[in-house]
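Hey, I'm writing a tutorial for new members on how sequence and structure tokens pair up, and I'd like a real worked example in the thread rather than a made-up one. If someone can provide the structure for the chain below, I'll link this post from the tutorial.
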Amino acid sequence: MGFSRAELASYRDATVPDFLPDGLRLLFVGINPGLWTAAAQAHFAYPGNRFYPALYRAGITAYRIHAAEGWSESDRAELSRRRLGITNLVPRATARAADLRREELRHGAEQLLSLVARTTPEVVAVVGITAYRIAFHKPDAAPGDQGEKLVDSALWMVPNPSGLNAHHQVESLAAWYRAAADAAGVPAARPIA
């Protein structure tokens, strides 16, 4: 299955529901949904996105989730079993994250506070360095544990898994995601080679 350009364009400004299982330990916070993600109604769904390959490589999931056509019930169960949640700083879908305004990112960081207060994850991992720096007014922030709390959760910044991010490949993304998972107390789902 795929989506035509016209179909994808029809999803501009659509939203994707947060995925917030009970007992949430690690909350990944994307920048905003892309058009493919909005069409599939599954976070990080674009076929070239490396989020799920990195989760699998890091041993965070027991199998590689393929979200391009949406999540299966097994995928939802796996994310829930691993106590992983996913939300976005900005809920509206765009063709590119660059289509967002600075004010939207900053407002998203404020909105994230109430979500974190309600769901109480151990770790909040914002996915995307540039978006994090803008949203949280931290122009010099570096990836990793930010050494501060968001409500009562440890705040992390991890690299963006978009295929457009040439600075990181699956291996380095997996290392960052594993570090955040370790901090959140998410055990390995399988042996990691």
